[in-house]
Specification:
The chain has one domain: Beta Barrel (Cyclophilin). The chain is globular and about 40 Å long. An eight-stranded antiparallel barrel has the order 1-2-7-5-6-4-3-10. It has a two-stranded antiparallel sheet with strand order 8-9. A hairpin with a 2-residue loop joins β8 and β9. The chain is an alpha+beta fold and 221 residues long. The chain contains three helices and ten strands; from the N terminus they run αββαβββββαβββ.
Length: 221
């Protein structure tokens, strides 16, 4: 009987160690990308668990250097800032194939989140993205229908929201038939995938305030 009791106690002790081991496990750190802009750095944490195909697509553009030298070509105060598709001369860059819309992942278009821009076709996103500067619930997924798909959120700004705020307030104009284009180009000098070794990098460049005059912002996308 004593031998059986000892075996049971040993199993219980092992079970306790296993339980504690699982309890101490931490989720893998999210992948981060740094956008080095003409107004300062923006660091984005990507959510590959919620939007795997979207994150894979975004990272492929980053690794290819596609975003380097592009601009935030559409800026609407009280709505969002959009970039990732045009050069400083408002020339649209050729992109890869479009990707499936993962907006049904449960993530919301809240202030500071990054989402994929697209045309009226639900699954037409390629390289362009936007950062929400306010909560934009009307952009969220509602149904798998042409008008209900919404816009896929795949990450959020974790550093540099002050830079986004400055970008949002820049005066805009019409260029080459495109509306809401910043008068002075807001350039994404470089988009970089942040490696683990860079986790303790130097402090980011602060935003550079400029003229904050803007036009009335229509909320159409």
């Amino acid at each position: 009987m004593n031998k059986i009791t000892s075996i049971i106690l040993s199993l219980l002790i092992i079970g306790c160690f296993v339980s504690f081991g699982f309890a101490e496990e931490k989720p893998a750190p999210s992948t981060k990308v740094r956008l080095e802009t003409s107004h300062g750095n923006i660091i984005i944490a990507l959510n590959a668990a919620a939007a795997p195909k979207t994150v894979e697509n975004f990272i492929s553009y980053v690794n290819d250097g596609f975003y380097n030298g592009t601009i935030f070509h559409r800026v609407i105060k009280g709505f969002m800032v959009q970039g990732g598709g045009f050069t400083e001369k408002m020339k649209q860059k050729p992109t890869k194939e479009t990707i499936p819309n993962e907006a049904d992942n449960g993530l919301k278009n809240l202030k500071g989140t990054i989402a994929m821009a697209r045309t009226n076709a639900p699954h037409s996103a390629s390289s362009q993205f936007f950062i929400n500067t306010v909560d934009n619930g009307f952009l969220d997924f509602k149904s798998k229908s042409p008008r209900g798909w919404g816009y896929c959120v795949f990450g959020k700004v974790v550093e540099g929201m002050d830079v986004v705020d400055v970008i949002e307030k820049q005066p805009t104009t019409v260029k080459n038939a495109y509306r809401d284009v910043p008068v002075t180009p807001i350039i994404i000098k470089k988009a970089v995938l942040i490696k683990k070794a860079e986790a303790k990098a130097a402090p980011e460049k602060k935003a550079v305030p400029q003229n904050t005059k803007t036009e009335k912002n229509p909320k159409n996308k």
